[in-house]
């Protein structure tokens, strides 16, 4: 009888707003959003201003959220993470529901970044780097060896900029957005010039140009191509580096640390460094005047042809298509464009693959007086905005949710102590 009498009391157990928010891993205002959407019921506190919530309802919602936010897909068993930032489907991709190519070709990189962060279009957006952050980042980068890779420079600049920001541990949306708007231009400002004086004013693409190209006075078509490349690459769903950022943010690492996690992954030849491999392949074709012997050497060595195909686009990579269209408006890009076409047509004899954005980046860098590693720099600077967007989204989720369980496949314990 005692058990039967206690059961109704358990079902009536009530939680305060603060307790419900902690159990759900969300902010208190999100709890009330669940109420307005009919996902939770609330009861006003007698004589007070707050509300209470049925503990069973809250626990059930928490379990449901965990299943929906991090789980396994029904097809490939891959990790799935609920996100409202980027959707990729049917050879197109969308930023917060808007066609990403349309955004990138009609707006600047800074404007697209703001859209990704806030869902609002802010025409004329510009990013300004604080002088203190730039000074400490430049000193740190200048201390690196000359052969340091782009990701090395940017990672060191990120860490240096973090040390100049005593409020970096503030994870509120406003504070993180403030970090984003100053970190990206600081990264660009910290890069050494490419042979002529740095440019530290104007749109971000103009400033980045002076760090990448030996051409001192770029034409408008070239600058537009660089700016659009940045906007096209700002995010691409849960790429490997973005997942690393979300794991860091899940552990409540500050924004600089989360970006540093992304930069640690981007150096991989199957990720941010892929455009450099495509640049070298393209340069070999330009030097030899024919793609056939270059492709034959790659195949003979058992290497994958860089710049071709993409696992998320069975057809054309929309980023490559948009960037190639702009490159066709640059007269000096014609030889590199022809070489890229030769690579695609030659490879199609044994593997009919479309050009991806890495090959388009290679045409941009090869025709605009940039080093093979310039594509990696463009990729990393662009993607920093996307990483911040994902970090912001992750800060609003339950802490440490990015914690999969290992499937142990070692010797069955207990094993004897080794001698």
Written overview of the protein:
The chain has 419 residues and is mainly alpha-helical. Helix content is 55%, strand content 6%. The protein contains 19 helices and eight strands. The chain has helices spanning 2-11, 17-24, 28-36, 55-69, 100-106, 109-118, 131-142, 150-163, 173-190, 204-212, 220-232, 240-250, 255-266, 274-288, 291-300, 318-327, 334-347, 357-367, 374-395, and strands at 14-16, 42-44, 51-54, 70-72, 79-81, 86-89, 92-95, 98-99. It has a three-stranded antiparallel beta sheet. A hairpin with a 6-residue loop joins strand 4 (70-72) and strand 5 (79-81). The longest helix has 22 residues, at 374-395. Residues 1-10 and 71-77 have low confidence and may be disordered.
State the gist of this model.
With 419 residues, the protein is mainly alpha-helical. Helices cover 55% and strands 6% of the residues. It has a three-stranded antiparallel beta sheet with strand order 1-3-2. It has a three-stranded antiparallel beta sheet with strand order 6-7-8.
Secondary structure topology:
Elements (H helix, E strand, L loop, with lengths): L1 H10 L2 E3 H8 L3 H9 L5 E3 L6 E4 H15 E3 L6 E3 L4 E4 L2 E4 L2 E2 H7 L2 H10 L12 H12 L7 H14 L9 H18 L13 H9 L7 H13 L7 H11 L4 H12 L7 H15 L2 H10 L17 H10 L6 H14 L9 H11 L6 H22 L24
Antiparallel strand pairs: 1-3, 2-3, 4-5, 6-7, 7-8
Structural class label? mainly alpha
Distance between the termini: 59 Å
Strand order of the largest sheet: 1-3-2
Radius of gyration: 25 Å
Total helices: the number is 19
Which features would summarize this protein structure in a list?
419 residues; 19 helices; disordered N terminus; three-stranded antiparallel β-sheet
């Amino acid at each position: 009888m005692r058990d039967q009498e206690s059961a109704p009391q358990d079902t009536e157990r009530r939680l305060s707003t603060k307790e419900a928010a902690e159990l759900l891993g969300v902010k208190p205002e999100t709890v009330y959003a669940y109420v307005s959407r009919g996902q939770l019921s609330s009861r006003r506190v007698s004589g007070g201003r707050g509300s209470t919530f049925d503990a069973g309802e809250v626990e059930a919602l928490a379990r449901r959220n965990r299943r929906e936010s991090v789980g396994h897909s029904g097809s490939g068993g891959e990790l799935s993470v609920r996100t409202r930032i980027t959707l990729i489907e049917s050879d197109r991709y969308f930023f917060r529901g808007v066609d990403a190519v349309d955004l990138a070709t009609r707006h600047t990189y800074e404007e697209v970044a703001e859209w990704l962060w806030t869902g609002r279009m802010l025409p004329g957006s510009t990013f300004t780097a604080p002088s203190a952050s730039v000074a400490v980042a430049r000193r740190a980068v200048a201390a690196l060896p000359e052969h340091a890779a782009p990701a090395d420079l940017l990672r060191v600049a990120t860490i240096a900029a973090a040390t100049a920001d005593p409020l970096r541990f503030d994870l509120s949306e406003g504070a993180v957005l403030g970090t984003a708007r100053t970190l990206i231009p600081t990264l660009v400002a910290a890069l050494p010039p490419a042979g002529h004086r740095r440019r530290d004013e104007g749109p971000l693409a103009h400033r980045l140009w002076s760090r990448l190209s030996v051409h001192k006075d770029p034409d408008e078509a070239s600058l537009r191509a660089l700016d659009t490349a940045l906007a096209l690459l700002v995010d691409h769903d849960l790429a490997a580096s973005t997942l690393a950022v979300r794991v860091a943010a899940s552990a409540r690492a500050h924004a600089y640390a989360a970006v540093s996690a992304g930069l640690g992954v981007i150096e991989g030849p199957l990720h941010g460094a892929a455009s450099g491999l495509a640049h070298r392949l393209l340069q070999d074709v330009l030097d030899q005047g024919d793609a056939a012997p270059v492709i034959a050497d790659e195949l003979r060595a058992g290497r994958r042809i860089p710049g071709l195909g993409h696992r998320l686009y069975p057809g054309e990579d929309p980023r490559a298509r948009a960037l190639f269209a702009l490159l066709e408006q640059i007269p000096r890009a014609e030889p590199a464009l022809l070489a890229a076409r030769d690579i695609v047509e030659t490879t199609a004899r044994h593997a009919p693959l479309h050009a991806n954005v890495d090959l388009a980046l290679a045409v941009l860098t090869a025709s605009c007086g940039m080093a093979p590693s310039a594509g990696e720099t463009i990729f990393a600077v662009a993607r920093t905005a996307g990483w911040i967007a994902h970090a912001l989204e992750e800060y609003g989720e339950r802490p440490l949710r990015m914690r999969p369980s290992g499937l142990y496949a070692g010797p069955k314990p207990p094993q004897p102590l080794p001698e």
